[in-house]
Specification:
Elements (H helix, E strand, L loop, with lengths): L19 H15 L3 E5 L5 H8 L4 E6 L2 H11 L4 E5 L5 H4 L5 E7 L10 H11 E10 L19 H11 L4 E13 L7 E8 L7 E7 L1
Parallel strand pairs: 1-2, 1-4, 2-3, 4-5
Antiparallel strand pairs: 5-8, 6-7, 6-8
Helix pairs in contact: 1-2
Length: about 220
């Protein structure tokens, strides 16, 4: 399972790492559902996403992660009365928080870092602490069959697998989703030769990132 591969804030730089803009985009899209809401950012990493959600109108945000260094950095950088950070195992949310404590849960690119045999446990923990909406993203597998070759992605899913997992864990909920397509953009500035943007598709099979929206 993921030890730590969290992207530190100093790598969120569109000149040095142009594709990082698509990572920020995930939270910009999520903020449509988090405005005015109490939010948990499940697997917050270095907390920049929680900070984005709070600055764009969330009522409050709690970011959780098992990476103690990332949580300490997040506390030093972003913590405020409306934005807090806790070291917490994502499989133990039921032990840390009350049922329905948050209106919205955001969990960006967490799915693929978890053991497949614990994915239901993960989703049930998100469901327990959330009263209204869960926003999940994960990369679409680009090969027919997944072969683990090292790294922190333990398993990447295809759209059929992803949708089946969501459906079995949220029976009776309103389910929706879409894909995010990461688009290279030519730069006409000398300082950098390329930038990246994100567009949407109803077809997850043509997308690099799959998004699940669960209305509880």
């Amino acid at each position: 399972m993921k030890d730590s591969n969290n992207t530190p804030h100093w790598e969120i730089d569109r000149f040095t790492y142009p594709a990082c803009s698509t990572m920020v985009d995930r939270y910009i899209f999520a903020n449509h559902w988090t405005k005015g809401k109490t939010v948990i950012d499940a697997a917050t990493g270095y907390g920049y996403g929680a900070g984005i959600l709070q600055s764009l109108g969330a009522k409050s945000v709690v970011g959780i992660d098992t990476d103690s260094d990332a949580i300490k950095d997040s506390e030093d950088r972003f913590q405020s009365p409306k934005c807090k950070f806790l070291e917490c195992d994502i499989f133990k949310l039921k032990d840390m928080f009350k049922e329905n404590e948050f209106e919205v849960c955001v969990s960006i690119e967490t799915f693929e870092h978890l053991p497949p045999d614990r994915i239901d446990e993960y989703l049930q923990n998100l469901k327990y602490v959330t009263s209204e909406t869960i926003f999940i993203t994960t990369p679409r597998r680009v090969t027919a069959v997944w072969k683990y070759q090292g790294g922190t992605h333990l398993y990447e899913y295809d759209p059929i697998e992803f949708n089946k997992i969501i459906a079995r864990n949220f029976k009776g909920s309103e389910l929706a989703g879409f894909g995010l397509i990461e688009v290279p953009l030519e730069s006409k500035a000398e300082i950098t030769d390329k930038q990246w943007g994100t567009t949407l598709s109803d077809d997850m099979f043509e997308s690099r990132i799959m998004v699940g929206i669960i209305k509880l």
